[in-house]
Amino acid sequence: MSIDQNTAAKVAKLARIKVEDEALPALAAEFNTILEFIEQLNEVDVEGVEPMTSVTPQRLKRREDVVTDGDQPDKILSTAPDAREGFFAVPKVME
Q1: Short-list 91, 62, 85, CA closest to 73
Q2: Distance between CA 78 and CA 29 in Å, rounded?
Q3: pLDDT in tens, the chain (95 residues)
């Protein structure tokens, strides 16, 4: 796949990058270099290789999923400016 100057201009426009006409050949060449590198990466055999999120093995810290603030409606509603029947009360926005 090869990128010409017209395609480079379209990409620059889509990216909202102002590129002068005299800089388009260099931009097209850069895009072609990037595409060549991607083609090289596609040739690498990654069958059986697990994806990784970091170069060093790490495990996420996990905690038990426990409700810690339940069964305290009176305590929770005590800071509300207006509470009625166990709920937060808010002013009407629409009639």
Answers
A1: 85
A2: 66
A3: 789 999 999 999 999 999 999 999 999 999 999 999 999 999 999 999 888 878 887 888 888 888 776 778 888 899 899 999 989 999 888 87
Q: Is the dihedral of CA 5, 10, 14, 16 positive or negative?
A: positive
The residue to which tokens 């040739």 are assigned? 43
Decide: helix, strand or coil at residue 66: coil
With tokens 């937060």, the residue in question is: 88
Question: Rounded distance, CA 31 to CA 5, Å?
Answer: 10
Q: List the structure tokens of 35.
A: 């595409």
User: Residue 88: enclosing H or E segment and its boundaries?
Assistant: strand 87-88
